[in-house]
Amino acid sequence: MKVLLVDDSNSIAMVVGQMLQDLGHEVVRAKDGKDAIAKVNENSDIGVVLLDWNMPEMDGLEFLEYNQKNKILSCPIIMMTTENKPEKIVKALQNGASEYIMKPFTQDILVSKIDTVVKG
Ligand SMILES: [Mg+2]
Q1: What is the pTM of this model?
Q2: Of 4, 11, 18, 83, which has the most beta carbons under 10 Å away?
Q3: How far is the CA of 72 from the centre of ligand 1 (A)?
């Protein structure tokens, strides 16, 4: 499956990207929300999105809002958060995220989150 990995941190993108590749996924990386829009336009077959919250240019929440208005994606979006404040999680879910995952996470947790959103 093609996974769009949106994170401004190169080190996180490397670690999570390697996990995804080990699981047999193809990784498309974007460094912020604006870059993610460009990558969505170039890749019509994205199966799931892993979306960081804090990023320059356009952050994760702004990307969710953009997608709700413009419907550029129909696949599930998993929000990656560093804090588990309930109001933030609720806000992400209200704005179109299917799930959230707390950073840092293990490959097992990543698998279970992806399975949850892709298989329902
Ligand atoms: Mg970030």
Answers
A1: 0.96
A2: 4
A3: 22
